[in-house]
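seq:
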Amino acid sequence: MSDPIKRLLPLLLENKGLNENGIRLLQTAHAGIKRKNKSDRTDEDWFVMGYYALQTGQYDEAVSAFSDAIFENEEFEAAFRFRASAYMDSKRYEEAAKDLDEAMRLDPSYIDAQFERVRLLYEMDKDADALSAAEAFTEANPEHANGFALLGSILEKSGQYEASIPAFDRAIDLDGDNGLFHTQRGLAHYFAGKPELALPDLLSAQSRSGANQVTHFNLALVYAELPGQTKEAFRLFERAFKKDPNMLRQFASTATATESKRLIGRLNGVLTRLQNESDSTGAFYRTELAALLSRKLSGTT
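struct:
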């Protein structure tokens, strides 16, 4: 293996996420592999190519690269596990299940493949089965941060917001630098009707993951529910939609029916409240925010 791949592969196999240095290493390794002839690429090369494609949302390319890794090494259990993730993210659930079965056949103790089995149930909306599997998984793997985060997501998806908080607490205890976990707990607080508790988590998530349209949108949701914060809510929604004008429409079309209904319902509630308020204080930004939300919500129906 070339040096970048030799340094990178253990990080990918651990599946703990890459920091900024790891991301740069992945980009360097990917660029080096692309310069090779395809006939000269090893199973590790193809695995890195697949991982890169998976991280950038190129699911067909990821499936192809992981398939080439498996062709070179039919006992490469991690390639089966990550190809299952690519299948899952493109909603090819039957193929994902077959790959996870094969990964587990090759290594019955493969914890990440066990975790992906739970996630598959979640993605397939088999909520009761997913909850039982997640509870069993976290009991057997009490140090698996993603397992607790997934348990929290399953509970939150079914509207059990308060019950989801301890699961997210545990995930953060295990991996406090993971911005996604802070986002998940913050949104659970938000949908539980506690925006004042959501705000610190979402600010913490932004400090860890960086500011982008998603962090701006999430913070705007919370500020829109806090007294005297309409101006800040408007500015953050405006930034989010400027970076991605179609983000709300895309969410409505790709999220589960429950998730889409929940978010659109909250935004319609904010819009109704803004339109019904008559206090002259903050009227300008209240009007601007109502107009912005009305335009964006009209594209989700």
